[in-house]
Amino acid sequence: MIGSISPVGTQLLSKPTSIVPEAGAAAGGGVASSFAAALADAAAQTQATLRQAEQLSLAGLQGKADTREVVDAVMSAEQALQAAVAIRDKIVTAYLEVSRMGI
């Protein structure tokens, strides 16, 4: 298991990273699209987690999956759903605050 983690760690260390935005992102288009992409990725990952939990739950009812696997999948799905709801609530709150601003 450690051997499979090592290449990932060395790959991350070998890539140069920068906190300064690129020239295209300075105009604001890159930041907005990356935020939208991040939200889309998070939503897709949450949906995949929920689907996996549902499939494992059905497999558990049929006796094809271990109870521990089902519980782990359902708990993971619950955590993902709570995170998605919290993010949604923050976005709605931010939108309401912006809509109340005077021009």
TrEMBL record:
Keywords: Bacterial flagellum, Cell projection, Cilium, Flagellum. Pfam families: FliE. It is found in: Bacterial flagellum basal body. GO terms for molecular function: cytoskeletal motor activity; structural molecule activity. The keyword Zinc-finger does not apply. One of its GO terms (cellular component) is bacterial-type flagellum basal body. The keyword NAD does not apply. Signal peptide: none annotated. One of its GO terms (biological process) is bacterial-type flagellum-dependent cell motility. Belongs to the FliE family. This is Flagellar hook-basal body complex protein FliE.
